[in-house]
Fold GspL cytoplasmic actin-ATPase-like region.
Amino acid sequence: MNVTIIFLPALDDQPWRWLRVADDGVVERGEGALVDASDPVTAVAPADAVTLHWSSLPARSQAQAAAAARIVVAEASAGPLDGLHVAVGDEADGERPIGVVGNDRMLGWLTLLGNAGIDPVAIVPAPLLLPAPAEGYVRAELGGQSVVRGVSSGFADEARLTELMTGGSEPVTLGREAVDAAIVAGVAQPLLNLRQGPFARRKRRAVDWPLVRRLAVLVGLVLLTTLAIDLVRIARYSMAADAAEMQADALAREGLPRGADQGDAARLLTERLSRLRGPGAGFTATVAAVASATRDVEGGEVIALAFEPTGELRATIAASGEAQANQLLARLRETGFVVTASTFQSDGQRVRGDVTVALP
């Protein structure tokens, strides 16, 4: 186990103290700024900054234990809990330690450590680094501050406070070796870590590069499969289009006369259709337009027709009156033809005139 332990100073003008734990023993001590904090760091909070309580709390969940701990602290505190951070620890003998510290104090410690590039894995109250005595109290110096630990208590060693808390019983002072052994054990498995709730340490997830590579390979395979599907679909569409074009060409050649199937079948078929229907819109389409317009007009009648080689259709038409004749001409123009009409002459009860119909 390699851990760096930093003792947070109780006052701003006090020096930083630290030590390193390796191979289950303290291997280095120092004061001042910490140069290298590559190992995990555990910070130790001053004893006079954290108030400790012990109480039997439910062990079903951390949230239930924290809620119960706030009730215990509220009963023992004279002030409101809004500005206090309450953390719950673990104890093997039933009663669990509860740490109470100001929110601003916790934020100040984390900011101070963060400015030094340190993100501690835990913040442990100093008294909890000492071994719990079977009875009475023990005393030791931690980070330049004298600390007292009882069976279910822990506090800073001050003459009047200690005498009041111990009831006049003199604490047993621990030697250096006993203190170091207690520190190693207390850091390996802290009874109470103040980094809970809003001050909990954020977990940094390491990048699983083998997983990233596997995902990249899978994404590449998916893209290649998608591309292959698109290429197959394009090839199928292309072959279907070629087959449809060949079928259309074969059908077009069936409409050509024998001996006239050399060359572009579509062009040859278009030329033959043009010859059959005549120039312009063709005889059939032009006559159909004139007949339809005449049928829709009251008293309309086609008297004579003549289809010219130029594609024009000359027709003599009759109508019940001049209004009906104009209506017939308007209907022809609505079909898209250019209509030229002579003056309609009266012919008994009707009027008649010559009309020329052609494409624009």
